[in-house]
Amino acid sequence: MDSLKGRDLLSMADLNSTELHTLLDFAAELKAGTRQPKCPNKVLGLVFSKASTRTRVSFSVAMYQLGGQVLDLNASVTQVGRGEPTTDTARVLDRYLDVVAIRTFQQSEIEEFAEYASIPVINALTDLEHPCQTLADLLTLKEAFGSLDNLTMTYLGDGNNVAHSLLLGCALAGVNIRVATPEGYAPNQAVVDQAIALSQGRSEVMITTDPKAAVENSHALYTDVWASMGEESEAEDRIPKFQPYQINQSMLDLAHQQAIVLHCLPAHRGEEITHDVMEGPHSKLWDQAENRLHAQKALLAAILNAT
Questions:
Q1: 76 is in an annotated binding site
Q2: CATH of domain 2-129+292-303
Q3: Which residue in 98, 116, 245, 257 is a FRET match for 207, CA 20 to 30 A apart?
Q4: What positions does the domain Aspartate/ornithine carbamoyltransferase Asp/Orn-binding occupy (predicted)?
Q5: Of 73, 228, 218, 103, which Cα lies nearest the Cα of 163?
Q6: Residue 81: pLDDT band with limits 50, 70, 90
């Protein structure tokens, strides 16, 4: 993990294939309790401009378990809420913190922060990517099948930040990735092109509007809400367009016999996923949510060179 010491994670593409696999192995060891690194006296800052449950809590618990401390620096209690420039905030927090996790809107905001801060900066979600979620997703997939070799992940729904990081992460991990969206809701083409380049021919990258073709014999079915944060006004209009992409029992029947079901949460039961599938034997949603803790703990320990 030495290569990750002091590094930023702004995108899944900031990792290479070896680093990703090593990080997932490290997370599994932390979960099993076979390794217990510590970084006492280190301080993690959380700068969140968007609401959060899993990301906020999992980062906080991870840092506490590593022996460090956490400062919650949301906009309402800092000068960020009064319009202090990102460049100024970055240079000030750089003098106080050892690492910072940022949840914000534009990817350019977190990139600007990282440019002006020398401490490691972690993307805790932007409108473009959600790399920490993908680390947990791949850890969950590996747990379910014992290996990531020859597996296919299918994402159904909106081609959003979660879809973008899945495309990049699966490409790096050598996992086939299929993304099925309604017409007009496909993932960013630049991200798709980047995923194809990162895959280096090791895995398939499929973008389609046909959900059944994407799901056929897939090992994991994944979805997210149909309208992300900031798009709530579009939610009702999207329902009829996205209904064919719902993960339900009929869709699950088309997948691999041992397929798992994933969702980054929170979920709108009865919309993008049915209650019975969410609570059924194929669901790994709660393992997936728990794995946010272990994946981010591994990331923090690697970045901070914990021993």
A1: no
A2: 3.40.50.1370
A3: 257
A4: 150-302
A5: 228
A6: low
- Tell me the C-alpha to C-alpha distance, in Å, between residue 242 and each of 46, 166, 186: 34, 19, 12
Angstrom distances, CA of residue 291 to CA of 27, 31, 114: 8, 8, 26
Query: Please, what CATH class does the domain formed by 134-288 belong to?
Result: alpha beta
Does 58 belong to an annotated binding site?
no
- Per-domain residue ranges of the chain: 2-129+292-303, 134-288
User: Is the pTM above the cut of 0.70?
Assistant: yes
Residue recorded with tokens 């809701």: 185
pLDDT tens digits for range 195-253? 999 999 999 999 999 999 999 999 999 999 998 767 778 888 999 999 999 999 999 99
What are the catalytic residues?
103, 130, 133, 224, 264, 292
Q: How confident is the model at residue 82 (pLDDT cuts 50, 70, 90)?
A: low
Q: What is the mean pLDDT of residues 101-130?
A: 97
Work out the angle between the directed axes of helices 161-173 and 131-145 (0-180°, nearest 10): 50
**Exposure of 266 by Cβ count < 10 A (0-12 exposed, 13-18 middle, 19+ buried)?**
exposed
Cα dihedral 192, 193, 196, 200 sign: negative
